[in-house]
Every structure is written in C-alpha cells, then in structure tokens.
Design goal:
4 helices, mainly beta, binds 2-acetamido-2-deoxy-beta-D-glucopyranose, single chain, 14 strands, elongated, 9% helix
Amino acid sequence: MGTDGADMTDVPLFSETMAPRLLLVLLCSTLLGPGATGACPALCRCYPRRAEVVCAGVPLTEFPSAGLPADTTMLTIQHTNISAISELQLSATPLLEGLHLYGNHLRSLSPDVLRGVPRLHTLDLTGNRLADLPAGVFGHAHALTTLVLKNNLLEAAEAEWFPDHSSLTWLDLSGNRLTGLPAALLHKLPHLESLDLSHNRLEKIQAKSLDALVKLERLNLQRNKLVRLEPALFHHTANITNLYLTSNRLEALPPSMFRGLGRLRVLGLEENQLGYLPPGLLDQLSSLDEEGLDLTANPWSCDQKVEYLWRWLQKNKGKAFLADTVRCAAPLPLAGRPLLSLTESELNLES
Ligand SMILES: *[C@@H]1O[C@H](CO)[C@@H](O)[C@H](O)[C@H]1NC(C)=O
Ligand SMILES: *[C@@H]1O[C@H](CO)[C@@H](O)[C@H](O)[C@H]1NC(C)=O
C-alpha cells in the first residue's frame, strides 16, 4: 500500500464493491466540472484512498467547494476563517460521514444545512461563534451519533433542534453559556451514552430530565452553578459509570441521590460547598474505583454530623482520592485538620 495522500492528484480507487450510487455521483461531478475526480480544493490536502479532505490552518474565507471530490466521506476544515456553510455546499458531497469544523468563524447554521448529507454520523463544531441554532437543524441527520458543540456562544439549547428518538450517542455542549436545559431535549435522546454540559452556567437540572437516558455512561456537569440537585435525578440512569459534579456550588446532597448507581466508578464532588454528607449517601456505590471518589476542597464541618463521612472514609480509605487531604473547615480549632486524623472525642461522638 502506498502512503495515503502522498500524491494529491491520485485518482480514487474504483473497487468492485463501489455502490452504483457513488459511481453516478462521480460521473455527474465529472460532467459538471468542478469537483471532478482527481481534483482537490486549493489550500487543502486530499487523501483519495480514504476519501478524506483536510483544510487546516489555511487562509480560507469560504467553503472550499471548487475541486472538492464528490465521494468525500471525511471533511475537516479547521482553523480557517470560513463564517458560513450552506446546504448547497454540503450536498456536493452526499456520502459525507464525518464533518469536522473545529475553530472556524461560523455564526449560524441554516435549518436545512444537513439535508444533503444523510450518512453524516459525526459533526464537530467546536470553537465557532454559534449563538443559537434553528429548529430542526439536526432533523435531517438521521445517522448522526456524535455531535460536538463545545466552546461556542450558545445561551440556550432547544428540544426543537432534534428529531424525536434521535440516534445521538455522544453530545458535547460544554463551554457555552447555558443557564438551563429543557427536559424535553434529553427526552429525545434515548441512546445517549455520553453527555458533557461542563463549563456552562447551569443553575438547575430539572427533575426527570435524565429519565430517558437509560444508556448514559458519562455525565459531566463540572463547572456550573448548581446549588442543589433533585433527589431522584439519577434514579433512571443506572448505567452511569462516570459522574462529574466538580466545581459547582452544591451545599448539600439528598440522601437518596445516588441510589441505584451500582455501576458508578468515578464520582467527582470536589470544589463544592459541602459541609456534610447525609447518612447512607454512598452506601450503594459498590463499584467505585480505587481513588474514584473525589471529596477534596469542600468546607467539611467536623462535628457530630460528619460522623457518616468520617466512618465511610475509615472503611473505604482507598476509594477516596487523596483521602488524607479531605480537611475540616470548621469548627475553628479543627480547621485544616484531615478528617481522617480526628478521634471520636474530637468529633464529640462519645456522649
Ligand atoms: C483570519 O482573519 C484574520 C483577520 O480577520 C487574519 O489575521 C488571520 O490571519 C486569518 N486567518 C486565516 C487562517 O486566514
Ligand atoms: C448498560 O451497560 C451495559 C454494559 O456496557 C450494557 O450491556 C447494557 O446494555 C447497558 N444497559 C442499557 C439499558 O443500555
């Protein structure tokens, strides 16, 4: 096998398995001129053997239509100055499966932008300037499983973006300006396995929001403004293995919060405002990894009410990340002391 992309003017290999439809597409594009076989857009690299085109870090200001091979399945336009992309431009590559648009200047998408690419399974829009999206924008993308909207300017996420029963398994909305998330949106995503909502401004996750996510394995809520959580929020998400609640403003957790999370391996609770954990909270977390639970950087109150956590740490020292650095913030005489170092009498447990 020759090295992919070594020769940019390589003609794509025609194999016997090539679908008739693809041949038709190629024939048409040959007849129509631009996009002819063997061509490659200016400033881009084409890898005909794997039907991939990459335009990265080049001074493009418009979608590179001219010369784009019609059989392209993977298209990367990264760190350029393109600010728009249209249905017409995309429909010139009807076999597209992966579209990576990382770090461009996209400000909006049209509702039909994906209509001409029915096989698209991965769409990465990280690091653009999208402030909102139109209703129905992912309604044409029936094969879409991975959607990354990380680091944009989204202030709201709308249920109307998605079709009912979407096939998405991976949704990344991190690094936006979301203050809430409609429960109806997540109800449309029953196949979701990974949901990243970190680095937003979420103050609340509505009760029952997650109830449809029975396949969810990873949930990242890190760096939001959550003050409290609904007691039954995770009661239907029994498949979660990784749950990150790090760097929020949680002051207390409901006692039955983690009930049923028997597969949970990693739980991040560090950098919150927790003074106690309610008795029983961690009892059902039988699958925690070694050092899987992070409780550091919380203002633990080392009085009688901290007894549950104190006893749990003694029994499960290996499960807590840096267990010796889980420290008291109060009362004053104990401030800074590792919780694990305290005696029963210091905690006033002998009565
Ligand atoms: C994008 O445009 C800016 C000016 O608007 C320019 O400084 C920069 O070099 C351009 N980047 C590319 C990749 O063309
Ligand atoms: C939960 O995860 C296991 C292991 O990955 C998988 O076999 C099972 O189908 C999942 N359950 C649901 C409801 O998806």
